[in-house]
Amino acid sequence: MNSKELLSAIPYKQLEGALPEQIQHMTIDSRDIQADSMFICIVGYTVDGHDFAQQAANRGATLIVAEKPMAIDNATVLIVDDTTRVLGQFAAKFYEYPSKLLHMIGITGTNGKTSVAGILHSLLMELGEKSALSGTIGFNLNGELHPSANTTNDALTTQQMIARARDEDCSHMTMEVSSHGLILGRLAGVEFDTAIFTNLTHDHLDFHGTMEEYGHAKALLFSQLGQDLANQKQAILNADDPWSYEIAKTTSHPVYTYGIHNKAQFQAKNINLMHTGTTFTLTCVEGEFSVSMTLLGEFNVSNALAAIAALYAEGYKIEEILKALALIAPVEGRMEQIEIDVPISMFIDYAHTPDAIEKAINAVADFKTNRIIFLVGTGGNRDKTKRPIMAEKASVADYVVLTTDDPRDEAYDSILADLQTGMTHENFVCIGDRKEAVIHAVQQAQAGDIIIFAGKGHEDFQIIGNTKYPHSDKEIAIQEAMKKFR
User: Fold this and answer.
1) Under CATH, which number does the domain 3-95 receive?
2) Which residues of the sequence carry a binding annotation for ATP (predicted)?
3) Residue 446: is it exposed, middle or buried by C-beta count within 10 angstroms (0-12/13-18/19+)?
4) CATH assignment of 98-326?
5) pLDDT band at 460 (very low <50, low <70, confident <90, very high)
6) How far apart are CA 91 and CA 431, in angstroms?
7) Would the annotation count 99 as a binding residue?
8) In the chain, which segments carry CATH 3.90.190.20?
9) 76 among the known binding-site residues?
C-alpha cells in the first residue's frame, strides 16, 4: 500500500526521516519482519515493543511507529500519542476495511460466548453459508481450525483474520468479544452487524474493579453499532439477565430478546433435559415450534435461543434454523461428554465462574442416578474474590475435587485455601496438581457416577509460571477410566 495513503488513516503525523514509498507488511512482532514492513511498537504487560525497534529495522522494517522519539538506523520513525490506538486504525486501512464486506456477528457476556459462537458458526455452515469464527477455541475458517492466543485478539490479528475470511468468500464471521478486548481497543475498525449479549456474572473484577464497570465494558459492543439506521443492524439481548435492560439503552438499532424465565420475543417452554440431548417448545412471532438438539442443559437452551434470534433477525426462516440445529454437535469443551465405554459418565466444561459452575451441575442433575463428582479449579494471580463463591456453587455436587486451573506464579496452597473457604460440606479434597486431581476424581468414581471436569474445557495446556505445559483433562480422564474399569 502507498505509505501516504496508509498514513491518511490517522490525523496527526510527526516523522523523523523520509517516508518510504510503500508499506507491504505490518507487524507488532519484530520476528515477523518482511521487506518494506511497518513495525508498530506496542507497550504490553511484560514486553515493550520500543525495545525491539532497532532489531526490526535491522531485519528490514522501513517504518517504525513509536510513542517517543527514537534514533533508529535505516528506518523512518513515525511518532504518535498511542500506538495501540493507531494499530487498529492502520490495520483496518491496510486490509481495506474487510468487515464491511461480511456479515459480522459479535457476542459478549461472561458465560456462553464460545457456545453461542460455535452454535451460530455450525448453523450457518449447515445452512449452506461459508463461515468464519474467532474466539477462545481459535480461528475456524470454513471448518478448518487455527490456534488463537486470546478470546479477542489484538487489532492487527483481528483485521488479518477478517481479511482472510473475506478472501475465502465467507458471507459471515462470528466473533467472541471479551470485555478486555472492548476496553483495550482490539475491535477498532470492526463493523458489526449483529451484537449478542449472553449474561453478566461475577468475573474479571481484578481488571474492571466493579460489576458496574464490567457491565459498561460489555455495553460498548452495542453502542458501537452506531447511529446509521439505514444499515440493517440488530441487538440480541437475554431477557433473563437484568443487564439487558441497561444495554438496550445504548443502541438505537432494533432489539430482539430471548429467554426462558422472563417474557421474550424468542422464548423456550416445556424444556426436557435428557442424557442424550434436549427438547423444548420455541414460542416466537412466527408461532410455536418443537425443538430438538444434542446440546445439554438449560444454559444451552438459552444459548440456542440467542443463535435462533440472531439468524431470524437477518432473514433466515425459523423452520430452516431449527432443522439445522437438530444436526449440529455440541461445542468442543462445553459440557462435552467424553465418549468412552465405561459405567460412569464424564464431561469436560470450561466453567470457571460461579454462574457457569451452577449451570454445569444443573445440566446433569435431571439424569443423575448416583453421585455427581465435580472437579473445579481457578487460575493463579487472577480475581480471588470469586474463588469461595465458585466452591460454594460446586458444593451442590456430592463430592468435590478442589484444584488449580492455570496456577501461574501463585502457590497451590494459596489458591486452594481461598477455594475451600466456600465449601458448604466436608465431602471434598484439595489437590493442587491438576493432573493428580483428575486422576483422583476418576479413582473415586463408582458405577453410575457423573464426573464434571470444569475450568479447562477444550484447552490442551496448563500455565505454570510463564510456561505452557501440555495438559488435557479429557485425555487424562480417558486413560485413568480405561485403567479403572477395563
Assistant:
1) 3.40.1390.10
2) 109-115
3) exposed
4) 3.40.1190.10
5) confident
6) 45
7) no
8) 336-485
9) no
